Fold this protein.
Amino acid sequence: MFTILFIVLCPYCLVQIKKQFYEHKVHNYLIEEIKYTEGDIQSIECQWYLGGLPNYSVDVIFTDEPDVVYIYFVHHKEHIGQFEHYTIYGKTLPPEQLKHYKPYDY
């Protein structure tokens, strides 16, 4: 019984740990490198996609732009970048209408 429970819970726990890791990495990137304050960030939430590339992405919403979700990813655990954005209504706005548009520089 314990073995079955372990086999079922282990992958779930691994995903949750990785999600927290990526949320933390993006949070530190925004605060330490981009110089946002805690008050600038409304929410940070990591998403996991089974079979997606990337498998993990981090959605960031800023307090002064609550209708826009900026999507960040952590490439090789060191390079962090913004690679997409959309409104909560499903629209993509042109970059000149966005306050926090900083695309990843490959």
